[in-house]
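Example 3.2
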Amino acid sequence: MNATLTAGEVLARSFLDVRFRLLDVAASLDRIDRAAESASVLKDPRMMMLREAMAILVDGKQDRACRLQMTFSLPYNERWQEV
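Structure, written as tokens:
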């Protein structure tokens, strides 16, 4: 028995959930835009990380989840226990 799903099967199973998540992200970005006091929010490091993450989603390359996680991760610090 082959347990591997085809791309079409994965898409069929996850389409509605992915659509919901993308709509949720879009709604959050719309709320940020409406509430922005000035253009300074566009320079906020968190907003810059979100834009980088969105670029990763559409770049067509593999390992998106790993690269997204690294976008939001701090660089490794060998002295982390001392900090």
